[in-house]
Specification:
423 residues, alpha/beta, 6-stranded parallel sheet, 4-stranded antiparallel sheet
């Protein structure tokens, strides 16, 4: 460490003095046991900030805070203090993180608000009783006594529509009595609930007891469903904005997060909310936070599903692509900072990746496998679990994401470690 500090001193001195001599230039670097480093630069002559910041970042130094922002209006100073570290740690959070803090951000909380025919959220009015996605969710709740997971519900709807697309012959007529033969009972029930089929009275006037399916009719319905998904997402965003904009009277602080918060340099959030910065560390730069599913207030929330088609069809049958997560991330430009962090040439080396409040569901496989399998940039993964049932589910999901042999290898190498939540 002493050699590293001496090299930093020499390099910064060279950067400052490359063009002009600086009188009474003092560079004081103080390391602390937790890996934090203070760099204090003073001089009688003004020096530029940006070249110093660029040098530190190029050498993988994470700047936690400084006396002046690098992109601020002041470019030259006589005194500059930078606090940072060469040790980086990534925190991945899912909705369980918000729930553990007592925030009502579950889909069920939102759906309970939607139970009224007409609702006002964040000063916007919504009528959910005609929304096919909400109608299907409500029908499932009436049947089962509880709300179905929203992504699971959308998956069921999309699978049914893709089945229609691949089953029916364009422009052919089908008698209603034949529908149960062509489609199973579950799919018929879903399609009836979301009002895919034309009104029977209207059909009877044109062609009694039969439906005619055309590509044009199918895509008209898909467009309508896309609109209703966006409507559903807008209502959800307004609901969550109300929560985020409401002061927390009695905030809950988690011991597990308190113990690691000062070492967290990067955040990958599967949530739409900004809870970590709101409650723990508010000065983490946007550069080091990846809201992979969108961020509240930016109208880019991702609410979709993983691929539902077999491999041989997924690049051909694209009629329902708007509902797939990978498409929404690109279309809504949520970015993928995590991929830049793990870039082979300029990537960040993480000592530890912490995962809190995420079920490790297969729908997020492409992101989670990319991080967990990156042995070049990630030394260790620590996964917090809520209880034994959650622990069991996380193990099962990781096997699906990594495969059994890879998972067992990482556990044996202590690369993956599970910790029960203490708060």
């Amino acid at each position: 460490m002493e050699n590293d500090i001496n090299k930093i001193k020499e390099d910064i001195e060279h950067i400052i003095c490359s063009n002009n001599e600086h009188s009474n230039l003092i560079i004081d670097i103080t390391p602390y046991p937790d890996g934090i480093i203070d760099i204090i630069i003073t001089s009688k002559d003004a020096f530029k900030i940006k070249p110093i910041v660029k040098y530190l970042k190029n050498n993988k130094f994470y700047i936690k805070k400084s006396t002046l922002p690098e992109n601020g209006p002041i470019e030259s100073v006589t005194n500059y203090i930078i606090t940072g570290t060469f040790h980086k740690n990534l925190l991945i959070v899912g909705n369980g993180f918000d729930i553990a803090h007592g925030l009502n951000t579950q889909y069920t909380d939102f759906l309970n608000v939607c139970s009224k025919d007409r609702i006002t959220i964040n000063n916007h009015e919504y009528i959910m009783k005609c929304n096919p996605i909400y109608l299907y969710l409500k029908e499932q709740k009436n049947k089962n006594g509880y709300w179905t997971d929203v992504e699971k519900a959308i998956t069921n709807i999309i699978k049914s529509l893709e089945k229609i697309k691949m089953t029916f012959i364009d422009n052919n007529s089908y008698y209603k009595s034949n529908l149960n033969t062509l489609l199973d009972k579950k799919i018929n029930s879903i399609l009836n609930t979301i009002k895919f089929f034309p009104d029977e009275k209207q059909c009877a006037k044109k062609f009694p007891l039969e439906y005619t399916f055309t590509n044009n009719d199918f895509y008209k319905f898909i467009k309508k469903l896309e609109y209703n998904l966006d409507y559903f997402i807008n209502a959800l965003e307004d609901y969550l904005l109300e929560i985020e904009n409401t002061p927390i009277n009695k905030p809950i602080y988690l011991n597990d997060i308190d113990n690691i918060k000062d070492g967290i340099t990067h955040i990958l959030s599967f949530n739409y909310t900004n809870t970590f910065r709101r409650l723990y560390v508010n000065d983490i730069s946007n550069e080091y936070i990846d809201f992979i599913h969108g961020r509240l207030g930016e109208h880019n929330l991702v609410l979709g599903i993983s691929e539902t088609l077999p491999t041989e069809e997924e690049n051909i049958e694209l009629s329902c692509i708007y509902f797939k997560k990978y498409f929404q991330r690109i279309f809504k430009k949520t970015g993928a900072k995590y991929a830049d962090w793990l870039d082979d040439k300029n990537g960040t080396n993480f000592d530890t990746v912490y995962i809190y409040g995420h079920s490790l569901d297969i729908t997020d496989k492409e992101i989670l496998s990319r991080i967990i399998n990156d042995v070049n940039h990630v030394k260790k993964i620590v996964i917090f679990y809520h209880n034994k049932e959650h622990y069991r589910q996380e193990i099962s999901n990781l096997v699906k994401i990594l495969d059994k042999n890879t998972f067992l290898k990482y556990v044996a190498e202590h690369r993956i470690e599970f910790k029960e939540q203490t708060s």
